[in-house]
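FW: tagging you since you asked about this chain on Friday. Here's the raw sequence from the shared folder, copied in full. Didn't touch anything.
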Amino acid sequence: TLWESQITKSFNQTCCKKFSPSPSMRMALPNPKTPVKKMEIKLFNEVCQDLRTRWRDFAVLMEEDIFKLTSQEIEHIAILANRETHYKTCAHELLNKFGERGMKVRDLIRYLDKMRMERVLLMMKPPEDLVIMHHPPTHMEVKQGDTLRLETFAYGFPYPRYTWFKRDKVVGLE
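HL: got it, structure written out here
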């Protein structure tokens, strides 16, 4: 059986449409030195929307950093957000707290990148070239019944996606 592999970067036309911001949300990339508390409000709200269900995970990333929050501060954020009007979320409170501590857009980008929050990062950071660190051979012959293991590693932004083919047809991963 003949197998082929292909790495596609998500910035191609098909994937780019899926992940690019809507025309109403397109804006210039923010200056990385801008304090989070001075970010454009539309972008701030987009970040909060993406962090809405993952704000605690985001807070935990700060364990070894100047932005580290105590567990009491995290719980206080949850309580404050529940008391506020419907448009305030825990993510809003969290970003405001980090803004008070001097967080810059570059710091925010670094943490969002660790969480692979691509949708909002597309509004905040420029594309990076695709770098393929390891790629299997483009053609391999395997006897029927044998196990085939294909591995690849690449990085860039938007994040690379891998597609495997068998006789020019996309195959799913098991």
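FW: The longest strand covers residues 2-9.
HL: agreed, and The chain has seven helices and six strands.
FW: great, closing this out.
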